[in-house]
Write a structure and sequence with these properties.
- Residues 95-124 are annotated as: Disordered.
- Helices cover 88% and strands 0% of the residues.
- It has 124 residues and is an all-alpha fold.
- Helix 1 packs antiparallel against helix 2 and helix 2 packs antiparallel against helix 3.
Length: 124
């Protein structure tokens, strides 16, 4: 039971992190993945418990290993997702900026103060 509780806690934490980082679509995908993983873990736990009742340590170690592996996988996925998101955002922003300021933005140096006044004038 303790291991199960621990697993649940970890899952919840990961989900929270995902909520913080991702948008809705990504969240849905990740949630589905999480559910699948939970099911898998539960199945594994049950199987192990049924097989060897005496060796409790082995079950705990295996479960912990599983959790660690899953977490690593999740982290990798998250990183990939984040990269994709960033790329998408950058692309969209660039496109928008070019449209608004007729290509001038690219040439001008990105120094907040110097650019601020010019931008305002152009917009007016």
């Amino acid at each position: 039971m303790m291991t199960l509780m621990m697993m649940m806690m970890i899952v919840v934490l990961v989900v929270m992190m995902m909520m913080m980082m991702m948008m809705m679509m990504m969240m849905m995908m990740m949630m589905m993945m999480m559910m699948m993983m939970m099911m898998m873990m539960m199945m594994m736990m049950m199987m192990k418990k049924k097989k060897n009742k005496n060796e409790k340590m082995t079950t705990t170690t295996t479960t912990t290993m599983m959790t660690m592996m899953l977490l690593l996988l999740l982290m990798m996925m998250m990183k990939k997702m984040m990269m994709m998101m960033m790329m998408m955002m950058m692309m969209i922003r660039k496109r928008r900026r070019r449209r608004r300021r007729g290509g001038g933005g690219g040439r001008r140096g990105g120094r907040g103060e110097a650019r601020g006044a010019e931008e305002k004038e152009e917009e007016e």
